[in-house]
Amino acid sequence: MKFHILTLFPDMVEGGLHTSILGRAAADGHISLEAVNIRDFTVNKHKKVDDYPYGGGAGMLMKAQPVYDAYRYIEEKISEEGRKPPRVIYVTPQGSVFNQQMAQELAGEEDLVFLCGHYEGIDERVLETIVTDYISIGDYVLTGGELPSMVMIDAISRLVPGVLKNKESAEFESFHNNLLEYPQYTRPEIWREKPVPEVLLSGDHARVDQWRLQQSEARTRKRRPDLYEVYAREPKALSWLLKSKIDHMDMIEVIRAGQADILCGDEEGVLLKDVPSGAIMVSASDEDMGERLLSLIPRGLKDGLFVAHQEFLKDSICRRFDAGIVNACVQAAYTRKTLLEEDSRFCIRPLTISFLEEVYSHYHTVHDKEYLEGRIRSGRMYGAFVEETLAGFIGMHAECSMGMLEVFEPFRRQGIGEALERHLINRILKEGRVPFCQIFTDNEASVKLQQKLGLRIGRQTVYWVS
User: Given a cut of 70, is residue 173 above it in pLDDT?
Assistant: First the structure.
């Protein structure tokens, strides 16, 4: 993960970020931190970067030219190193409020650029040109964007593999699963007549885990009722989804993977957003419940991708959001725990970015190059090789489903497709997940393959709408 900070005060940023855990992570190569001085890119001989705002008003504005040229310097370096254009975060109280889920999403990027404003802000024209995300750390005003950028970089870095020495320390601290962290104690056993809770001295790990969960729930309910409300949605959501498990495996696995923003969890319907893909998934008991759920979709999500689990929801989405592209699928899930026997005739391994063009040339009508690149870089696409020649591939979509199965024409009818799916099923099982896929309703060959491999076929049609 590479962080680039556009700032007027590089010493402030570098001094704050090159210490403690982040300093060690940078030294070990897990992250890199680059502060770029916007003032170095001004064409003004006095190094002036601000000017009076048109239309009058108090204060000064940062000019567009030095900000843009500083950004182009970063963008060109990234391009020369063969990476995709970065997301550019403008730190502003007008942005979406930063949270742990946002940190998890951003931690999956290769490069992040933080633009730190000063004075009364930055010329709007350059913001419209380069900024991809407007983010705030709270409803208050600071003198500049450096401190908020450092806060976000710290939170994001902790989620980058290798930054924290103990893997569990990132998974079980505050805000994991929308719960605050439980109380913790160290020596001495008794301090000022206050003892450590007996359960923590028992050596019974099951009791300790149960006590910690109860403490987290109680603390969250008392101190952050807003978070507790979100936490409480999950069991209600799963209660509805598990009534028809195979048909809802996509929504169940998104929740279990910790990548679901549950907008509404009710025992008669569920509305959630899969954060990595941005897909809005919805299932409801009847049309009235469906209308209630769809009315909760935030304004900014109404032009996206929808997954409807009932036909009446599909019709309502098309009507409400003027969506016209509908793909009908059935779900299939491998619900057993036993690994499948793999075909030793083929070498199957994760694909590297060097195979992007070849994958895209065979799959360009289905997914764009950026999506395929993201799947390869995530380590979630696998190729079958015959004498070191790529013969086909399969992948795991951002929303956890298996897919993108393609066998090249010269290698078809040799069992390569089945071998690829067996391999991916086993990988998912080893991660403690449920392998599942979605099949176009007219793809009889794929349905037969899933049945042959022991996947159970759902009874309901699932509609992808865009």
Answer: no
Q: Is the pTM of this model over 0.85?
A: no
How far is 164 from 431, CA to CA, in rounded Å? 21
DSSP annotation string for 384-451: EEETTEEEEEEEE-TTS-EEEEEE-GGGTTSSHHHHHHHHHHHHHHHTT---EEEEETT-HHHHHHHH
3-state SS, residue 376: helix
In the prediction, which pLDDT does 91 show? 93
Query: Tokens 């899933």 belong to which residue?
Result: 450
Task: Quote the Cα angle for 254-259-264, to 5°.
Answer: 75
Contact between 104 and 145 under an 8 Å Cβ cutoff? The reply is no
Strand partners, 348: 384
pLDDT digits (tens, 9 = 90+) for 176-227: 578 898 999 999 999 999 999 999 999 999 999 999 999 999 999 999 998 8
Could you give the dihedral angle defined by the CA atoms of residues 15, 17, 19 and 23, in that order, rounded to the nearest 10 degrees?
A: -130
Mean pLDDT on 50-74: 93
- Is pLDDT above 60 for 337? yes
Q: Which of 87, 113, 78, 115 is nearest to 4 (CA)?
A: 113
**Could you tell me the pLDDT band of residue 168, with boundaries at 50, 70 and 90?**
very low
What is the distance between the alpha carbons of residues 163 and 22, in angstroms, rounded to a whole number? 7
Confidence band for 378, pLDDT divided at 50, 70 and 90: confident
Half-sphere exposure of 274 (CA within 13 A, CB side): 22
Q: DSSP letters along 114-181, please?
A: EE---TT-B-HHHHHHH--EEEESSSS--S-SHHHHHHHHHHHHTTSTTSSSSHHHHHSSTTGGG-PP
Residue with tokens 């020596």: 187
**DSSP secondary structure of 224-286:** -HHHHHHHHHHHHHHHHHGGGTGGGHHHHHHHHTT-EEEEEEETTEEEEEETTT--EEEEESS
Virtual torsion, Cα 281, 285, 289, 290, nearest 10 deg: 40
Give the pair of three-digit tokens for residue 137: 């750390």
pLDDT of residue 301: 66
Cis peptide bond N-terminal to 435, omega within 30: no
